[in-house]
Amino acid sequence: MNTNRLLRCVVFLILVLSLSAASFGQIGIGISVRFGPPALPVYVQPACPGPGYIWTPGYWGWDDDDGYYWVPGSWVLGPVGLLWTPGYWGWGDGLYVWYPGYWGPVVGFYGGINYGFGYTSVGFFGGEWRGGTFFYNRSVTNINVTNITNLYTHNVVVNNNHVSFNGGPGGTTARPTPEQARYASEHHTAPLAAQIEQARLARANRSSFASVNHGRPAIAATSRPGEFSGQHVVAAKAAGGTYHAPAMSPREARAQAGTSRAGENRAAEAKGNSQNVNRGKARSAARENGAQERQSRIEQQRQKAEQQQARQQEQRQLKAEQQARQQEQHQQKAEQQQARQQEQRQQKAEQQQARQQEQRQQKAEQQHARQQEQPKQEESHGPGG
User: Fold this and answer.
1) pLDDT class for 9, splitting at 50, 70, 90?
2) How many domains are contained in the chain?
3) Closest of 21, 365, 380, 14 to residue 203, by C-alpha
4) I want to staple 225 with a disulfide (CB 3.0 to 4.6 A). Which of 108, 158, 198, 233 is the partner?
5) 60 with 187, same domain?
6) CA–CA separation, 97 vs 10, rounded Å?
7) How far apart are CA 15 and CA 257, in angstroms?
8) Are residues 186 and 300 in the same domain?
9) Is the residue at 4 inside a domain?
C-alpha cells in the first residue's frame, strides 16, 4: 500500500516537473528528442538599449505538441560581474539532449555552437566586466556610442557556421576541456525571470515554431526581453540551412525524461541514458528526493537572481540620482562663477569709467586755471607797467 502511494507520488512529481519545464520554455533539465533542431537563423543584432545589458543569443526551444520553436536573442540586464553561458543541444545514443544556459563569472562550454555576436563557439568576445562596469567590444556588437561610452575594440574572426547542435550527424565536434569540465560542476546562477518570460512568450507565438517559419522566424531578436513588437524587433534575414520537415510527430520524437542524463553536468559529453525507470521502492524514493532537491535548487537560484537584479537596478537608480545631483551642482557652480565674472567685469568697467571721468575733470580744471592766469599776466606787463 505504501509502495503504491509512493509510486503515485513519484508519477505526480514527474508530471509537475515536466509541466514546469515546459512553462519555462524548456530551460529546465531532462529534455531529449529523437531528431535535431534546425540550423540557427541568420539575423542582425538589435542595438544595445543601454549600459549593463548583456547579449543572450537566440536558440531553439522544444514543445511536446508542436516541436522546435525559436526563442529570440535579446539584450538582458545581467547580474554585475557575471557572464552568460548559452544553452545548447547535444547528441548521444540517438537522442538530442538540451543543456540549459546559466550565469557565472566565466563563460563555460556551450557545445562549440557559433551563436555569433561574440559567442564564437568558445568563450565570449562581446564584452567584459571591469570592476562594476561592463565594457563592450565594438567589433562584434551593435552599440550606440551616444548612449554607451564603455567601449573597446578587439577584432574577432567571424565564421558562417549555423549548426545548432553538438555531436551526431552534421553536429559540431567540440568537446569540453578539463577546465570547462571542472567549471561545469561548480555553482551557477539560473536564468533570470526576464529570460524565462522571453521563452514563454516565444512558445505562445505560433510564428516562432519551425513547422511554421521553416527555420526563418519573423522575430529572431529583440532589444529587450518581452518586446515582441515595435521597431526594435529584428526578423531573420534567412534560414541558416535547408529546412527538413521531421518524419515523426513531436509526441513520437519526445523521449522519456529519464532517458537523458542531468543537464547540470554540461561539461560531460552528450550521452543520453536509455535506462528504464526502476519501479522499486528505493529507486523511486531516491528519484523523488533528487527531483525535489533539483526543483528547490532551481527555485532558490531564480529567487536569488531576481533579488540580485533588483539590487542592481536600485544601485543604478541611486547612481543616476547621484549623477543628476552632481550635474545640478556643476550647473549651479558654473552659473555662480559666470555671475561673479560678470560682476567683476561690470565693476572694472565702472572703475575705468570713473577714472576716465576724473581725468577729464582734472584736465578741464587745469585748462580753466591756465585760461584765468593768462589775463593777469598780460595786465602785469601792460603799457603802464
Assistant:
1) very low
2) 2
3) 21
4) 198
5) yes
6) 23
7) 10
8) no
9) no
